[in-house]
Amino acid sequence: MKKIGIPALALAGLTTYDLLQKRHSILRTFPVVGHLRYAVEAAGPELRQYIVTDNNTERPFNRDQRRWIYASAKLENNYFGFGSDNNIDGVDGYPIFKARTFSDLPARPHSPQAFLPSAKVLGGPRARRAAFRPSSLVNISAMSYGSLSAPAVEALNTGAALAGSLHNTGEGGLSAHHRHGGDLVYQIGTGYFGCRTTDGAFSLPALLESIADAPVRAIEIKLSQGAKPGLGGVLPGAKVTEEIARIRGIEPGKDYVSPSRHSAFGDVDSLLDFVETIAEATGLPVGIKSAVGHLEFWEDLADAMIPGTRGVDFMTIDGGDGGTGAAPLAFTDHVSYPLHTAFPLVQRIFQKAGIAENITWIASGRAGLPDTALMAFAAGADMVNVAREAMLSIGCIQAQRCHTGHCPTGVATQNAWLMRGVDPTTKSARVANYMTALRRDLLKLSDALAVAHPALAGSDDIDILHADGSITSLTEAIGYQPGWGLPSRDDRTEITRIMYADA
């Protein structure tokens, strides 16, 4: 009996510890058996010598990318040893960042928080009353409360506050879980959740009421998102709790399908009127978010903004290869261009129109790693938004069960037992650590290129290697002219002064 009792007591003790600890979501939700995952993960490098899957095979984020995010979030060593395991010479389209030997810039005063503001003042060119310079060029992308759990949203918002970043509410409205210190970007989707009339139309008074006492710094109008451009989102009735229904202005327990397009406007002209109405009423910068398909919309928008009387303050270009939203496979695989194709397509239109400098450009869609972010900055981005990478930092294991409501780590679910695994206090620190690490690595890359700020990296700073040994500059690959994608001379001068103020 003693031989049986000792293991049983040990097992009970381990179970109790796992249930009470707050460091690991998997162990908190799946005590004891969750240790098997960490054991296999620890032995991964050795096991991978005998199995097919390598560090760069998995998608949407491969093992190396996830390891960098996890290590950064936990303040562990995020360096890699023994050289690259990428097939650099044998891959077509491999990017190379071209380091400079000498630099005229002074030694950078690296701060512990990796201070890295936006190169542009958001809303400055259109003189919005509440124009401001975002203190972080890396911010948290739109993920609604409802699609994410309450503790996940709280962790992201608190983490955003710790990192000095902006947190986009997503189209599900502004909840109490968004009010933990982080500055907000309020997103308006086609369902107008949180700012709608009883019959589902947009309501400006409801919007003003929603943001009246909240730290909302900007408004984003979502035209489409990368997961399902041209398709409305679905919120199953099982997820529409009393709280979520109250926040969104809908009935509890009922399925809700967002319209595929907006009812408040139907063309570029009425869109710009809508933007200016909101900007005038709130004083806030107002922008749009969209995936990219047919380019006529963007050409018409650029033409309408040339006179300067109306315009959007920022554009969030979203990659069309899926994201945090659940969608039919055909949409994630085939509808709209991926980010690094989409962004230059739109940027070229506004560069030719001569108004690109008047817009703050935001890239989203797997832009939350140092290399992918720098590619976006070189193409003209001023900031990047991160979604899935932020989810990984708070415990997501890429189980790809977001659409089922049974996320094992409690991040993308409303299941009370599963979301118990997310402790907002520890996870908020992790998302802040990740954001800081990303900014720090972007600073290191900027130093290698001898530029003061990632947004000052140009398309000439990157070459594309081809499997046949040839080289194409990024400038040529994306069809840019010299200087395209860079902030204005005044913005370049000002951000350089800010970055070296203490040098």
TrEMBL record:
The alphabetized UniProt keywords are:
Oxidoreductase
| A Pfam family per the record | Glu_synthase
The residues covered by the Glutamate synthase domain are 135-448
Checking CDD domains in the record gives: GltS_FMN
- EC number(s) on record? 1.4.-.-
| UniProt cross-references to InterPro entries, sorted A to Z | Aldolase_TIM, GltB, Glu_synthdom
Can you provide one Gene Ontology molecular function annotated for this UniProt record?
Answer: oxidoreductase activity
Keyword rRNA processing found: no
**PANTHER family, per this entry?**
ARCHAEAL-TYPE GLUTAMATE SYNTHASE [NADPH] (PTHR43819)
Recorded family membership: Belongs to the glutamate synthase family.
The protein, known as: FMN-binding glutamate synthase family protein
Q: Which organism is it from?
A: Gordonia westfalica
